[in-house]
Design brief:
binds NADP nicotinamide-adenine-dinucleotide phosphate, alpha/beta, about 375 residues, Rossmann fold, seven-stranded parallel sheet
Length: about 375
């Protein structure tokens, strides 16, 4: 029997990882639609910066994917459960297996059976990969589908937006280093705006996304790693040498930096740390597959026209120019920072060099 239709305000969404980079966009997209949101985070005070919404609409609870009881508590009574938890490198008790391989299964087992399950994995998830990150993401998807075949999985490519770790990282490195050594310089990526991924997640919560499928989320452009770093240099008006590292050198550099990171108990600045596992990930293209495009398992297939990085990134990287945002004020009329709640992009910031002509159809996969 079909029950009465419930408004978003009558539905509770638990968001694991709601305090993270993508989490902020997801919480904004859901708050705008009027859902009640429970952010599950290890440190609820970290979620204080999130939009407050209506009185009582958003609140944070303590939860750790390594603690079964806290997960059970976080999903209790939820109508939708979203899992955004992920790590790029292991440290201390934060292991790929616990968080990315086992975590999705644990959430699926403990979530109410009627709850929609939405899980964020990554393009590159592959059980046969040499990378432990990629294997754990694949294992997480498999364990999730075993427990809940109706779950929805989204695999983003590299995500961007204010606060991202990729473009901000290379802009920061370019400020400090005369030479930028790159592992996987010719590897192709399809950067996707985090707000577009969040929109897909919000549509999944609304019941507009077919369940039991894996969606691949990429932006409108495919660029090599080197082109993206050159784009950062152009936007921040820095002249730096980009040096492509041969694969064995990149892996060795990753081993040394990973070791130093462990040795210093994670005290090395994040911008400098590239582990061996990450170097291995960078050997493989990170773009939407032909199969996903054919089957409509893409943002476009969900009716979302993704924004390009040239439209969004300059607005938050100008601060890395020698004279920061004042440079823009001197030379041009600045564009406002992108609005996380925006309906659509207003195009590139005035006076900002772009990556070159971009065709919406330029999304050839591998
Ligand atoms: N960023 C990208 O370019 C990218 C690309 C492809 C896929 N992805 C995937 O997208 C998802 C979101 O990425 P993101 O960039 O938003 O990551 P992020 O900013 O690092 O956020 C990760 C979240 O995971 C939570 N978390 C970490 N360990 C936890 C634990 N033991 N128990 C509970 N929560 C834990 C953190 O919350 P607390 O620290 O507050 O507990 C944080 O909110 C991840 O699954 C990531 O693998 C990201």
């Amino acid at each position: 029997m079909i029950g009465p239709i419930r408004t978003p305000a009558q539905q509770l969404v638990t968001v694991f990882g709601g305090s993270g980079f993508l989490g902020r966009y997801v919480v904004s997209a859901l708050a705008k639609r009027g859902y009640r949101i429970r952010i599950a985070t290890r440190l609820p005070n970290r979620a204080n910066f999130l939009p407050q919404g209506m009185v009582g609409q958003i609140h944070a609870v303590q939860a750790n994917l390594r603690n079964r009881d806290s997960v059970a508590h976080a999903v209790a009574g939820a109508d939708h459960v979203i899992n955004l938890v992920g790590i790029l490198k292991e440290s201390g008790r934060q292991r790929f297996d616990d968080l990315q391989a086992e975590g999705p299964r644990l959430i699926a087992e403990l979530a109410p059976p009627r709850a929609t399950l939405i899980h964020v994995s990554a393009i590159g998830a592959d059980s046969s990969s040499e990378s432990a990150y990629a294997r754990s993401k694949a294992a997480g998807e498999a364990s999730l589908f075993r427990a809940r075949p109706d779950a929805i999985v989204l695999r983003p490519s590299l995500m961007f937006g204010p606060g991202d770790s990729f473009f901000n990282r290379f802009a920061a490195l370019a400020r400090m280093l005369p030479v930028l050594p790159l592992a996987g310089a010719e590897t192709r990526m399809q950067p996707v705006y985090a707000a577009d991924v969040a929109e897909a997640i919000a549509r999944a919560v609304e019941g507009k996304v077919e369940q039991g499928r894996v969606y691949e989320c990429g932006g409108p452009e495919i660029r090599t790693f080197r082109e993206l770093v050159q784009f950062v240099l152009d936007v921040t008006e820095r002249r730096r040498l980009i040096v492509s590292l041969p694969t064995p050198v990149a892996r060795m550099q990753g081993s040394v930096l990973g070791f130093l990171d462990t040795l210093t108990l994670g005290l090395l600045p994040d911008a400098f740390v590239m582990t061996r596992d990450q170097a291995i990930m960078l050997e493989t293209d990170n773009v939407v597959s032909e199969a996903a495009k054919r089957e409509g398992r893409t943002l476009e297939g969900l009716g979302i026209l993704p924004d390009s990085c040239e439209a969004i990134v300059p607005s938050y990287l100008v601060r890395f120019r020698k004279t920061g945002q004042f440079d823009l004020q001197r030379n041009t009329v600045p564009s406002p920072a992108p609005d996380l709640m925006r309906e659509e992009s207003k195009g590139p910031a005035p006076g900002v060099q772009t990556l070159g002509p971009v065709s919406r159809g330029d999304t050839a996969g591998h």
